[in-house]
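Hi support team,

I'm filing this because I wasn't sure whether my run with magnesium ion finished correctly. The job status page said complete, but I'd like someone to confirm that the output block is well-formed before I use it downstream. Pasting the exact inputs I used:
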Amino acid sequence: MDSIELQTSFDTDEYIFREGDPGDCAYIIESGMVEISLNKEGRKLVVATLTKGDILGEMAIIDRLARTASAVAIVPTVVTPIPLDYVSQKIEQSDPTVRMFLRLAMARYRDLNARLGQVFEGLSVAQDMTPDDTYASTTMELKSVVSQFTEMQKRIDSAVTKPSYDSGVSVFGEKTLRDTKILVTEEKLLKSALKKMEFRLYYQPIIELSSNRIVGGEALVRWNHPSGKLVSPSHFIARAESCGLIVDLGYWIAEAACSFQGRLCNDLQRDIFITINLSSKQFEDKFLVPSLADIMDRTGARREQIKFEITESLLMDNPELATQMLHQLKETGAKLAIDDFGTGYSSFSYLHRFPFDTLKIDRVFVSAMSRSEKSNQIVKSLVNLSHDLGMDVVAEGIESGKEAELMHKYKTGFGQGFYFSKPVTETEFVRLLQRPKIELAG
Ligand code: C2E
Ligand code: MG
Ligand code: MG
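And here is everything the job wrote out:
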């Protein structure tokens, strides 16, 4: 077999392979997007999102063991399969030293892969309990395994990209070229998506737990992919950050969210605040604060009804810059929230060093509360401490009436989650506001 021509199409949500399946093919993505995930005790753990030019499923055909992850198309996707026979033949034809190194590298790669899975499991257990030090040490271990894993991936990539054999179709030999192309293509794709206005803002209601009334909404971006599928921000925000597009995208998001707040307040006469997520890359833009102030004014938004959400990682990446920017942002009259509290280092020192108005407790705590007494204690203390420091508290990811009740009992004040409402369009959000109380989903 000297050439690879046949392409295969997969519909949205169709599996290309599942964890445990025997490996008979690797695949090159010709178009679309594929999500790679592990299954940890029934929990799906997404480890990568691959797009045009990426290769997947190569491990199982190099060492002929079962698949260690699942691959699913998240938009309609076309792939070119690279069959096992084809690769085996190429490997057999290669230099014995290359074969030996490849075998060795694969054994270590599998071992690291297994350890990565274990650390993720450890992390989820630690998130249930969360004494600070257990959490920090698990995070450090995770970082170290991830960096070893990445290093190993690089070595395998460079081993297999060497076109040391054959003059036929050099599938692997194309990978480095493809890699650079992918980055450029993805960047182009995202830029053109912004130009073509393919991004949409959804709003998830934030509820006052004592009255079940909507008091605010979090703006959450989605990519309305030309295939018709709404792509989640977890699939493109990181890429938008790494290619710098997040700055322009961030301004588009701020403009859209502030315009919506302006309409709520001026046209509908509703006192509803809107929160906007900021990423650390946006903080590197020295015009960020004056530009946001300008956007708030131009759009007719009430500055005190706009709240910017910032994660702990942003504070840790560059604490000096963060301190300076957050104080400037606060001076505009807008509000500040610390997002996903409990997923990073959860250092309490942040809480009085930075001028936050709101603390958002991450959903890992909320879901752990029904299982772990310690999580209950942590949440209670966190809520008390936040109130003592003058902050209000939002519990994220409330999925059941029981969780809502517990959060209300612990005086969390505000909640957000699928139990109340998923993120919805502007029109749907306004419709929800017309009701005296939010109708509960569960
Ligand atoms: P986040 O800021 O913590 O947003 C909350 C996420 O939790 C949203 O996911 C929301 O849909 C999800 N969520 C809410 N309630 C529940 C629940 O009850 N159960 C579960 N399982 N999930 C719930 P989404 O929209 O996929 O956003 C993911 C993350 O992407 C956000 O986390 C935020 O970090 C980032 N992101 C979203 N929109 C933007 C944006 O406009 N700008 C920036 N820089 N980042 C954004
Ligand atoms: Mg947020
Ligand atoms: Mg959050």
